[in-house]
Amino acid sequence: MYKKLFGFVLITHIIVIAYFGLRPGAPTTESPTSVNNGSLSESSTLSETGSTTIEEDDLLEPMRVKVSYPEIGSFSEPVETELPESIKADDIKSGILYDLSNNRVLWAKNSAEVVRIASMTKMMTALLAFEDVDDNDTLSMDTVIGVTNAAYRIGGSQVWLDPRESFTLQELLISIMVKSANDSSYLVGEYLADGNMDSFIERMNTRAIELGMNSTQFLNAHGLPEGIDGNTSTCEDLVRLAAALIQFDQAIEWAVLPTYRFRANAKEPTILANHNRLIDTTEGVDGLKTGYTKAAGYCIAATCLRERQRIIAVTTGFKVRQAKRRGYQGADRLGVQCKASL
Fold this sequence. Notes:
Blueprint: H1 2-22, E1 94-99, E2 104-109, E3 115-116, H2 122-135, E4 144-146, H3 149-152, E5 166-168, H4 169-179, H5 182-192, H6 197-210, E6 232-233, H7 235-245, H8 249-255, E7 259-262, E8 270-273, H9 278-281, E9 285-293, E10 297-306, E11 309-318, H10 325-341
Antiparallel strand pairs: 1-2, 1-11, 3-6, 4-5, 7-8, 9-10, 10-11
Helix pairs in contact: 1-10, 2-5, 2-7, 4-5
C-alpha cells in the first residue's frame, strides 16, 4: 500500500516540478500569455504532443458525469504528514493531495490556511455557468453574449474582447478553462447576473457556503487583485470546488484541450495555448485550473485520473517562476518512479 501511496504523493511533486520547471514560461493572471492574430507569443506554445486543436463544433452539450464520488464532509487526517526525503516541499506554502474516489487525504501542508487563490477563482465562475445551463431552459452553451465595455476594460490574461464582438457562452467558457481569460470571466459573470456584478459575486460566495467552503471569500469573478485585497480560500475548500466542477463532463473536456481556436471564423483566429502544461507532461492529468498573482504566487488545482482513482492536488504560494536545468532531470526521474508505483 505504501508503494502505491508513494506514487500518489509523487503526483504532487510532479505538479510542482513539471508545472513550474518544464514549462518555458509560467502562466500569470496579470500578464497575457496567449496568441493573438494567429501567431504564438514567446511565452505560449502549442501542444508538444502533436495534439490537434478541437473545434467548438466537435464539443458536446454539457451533462453530469455518471461517476459519482463520496460527498466530502470533514477532511480526514492525512495518511502521510511528510513527503519522501527526495521531494522538497519547502517552497509549498500550502497544499493537499486528496483521493476523491476513497474520500481521504493522502498528504497535506497548511491545507486549512487561508491564502490568495488568483485565477483558481475561475473554477467558481465556470461552475455557476454550468449549473445555470443545467437549471435554466432559456440558457444554453449556444447562447450568444455581446461584449460589454466593462468586460473590455478587464486586463491581465485576456482574449482581447471588443464591444463590437459577440461570442457564445461555450466559446467564453473554453477561453476561461484554456487561457484563463479575465475578460471572459467578467463577461460570463456579468451576463449570468443580468449586468449586476455585485449580485454575481454574492452568488459566488453563497455557492461557496453551500459547498462547505466556509473559509472562502470572493471579491470578483476572475481573481485579479482588488486594490490590496484579493480572493481568498484554502486548499481544502478548493478541493471541494474542484470536485463540484468536474461533475460536468465539459469542464474536464475543455480543461484538457492543449490549444483552442478562439474567433474561429475570423480571417486570423486567436490561437489559445493551455496554461496547464501538466496535461502534456503527466499521465492522467486532465485539469483543472492554474493561477498567479504576486501576492498569491504560482498556484494550481490539478485533477488526475489513474486506474479509476480520481486524485485532486492543490498547491499555492510558489515564488519561483522557472526551475534550473536539474529540475528537468528530477521531473523525468520522478515521473518514471510514479508510473512504476501506480
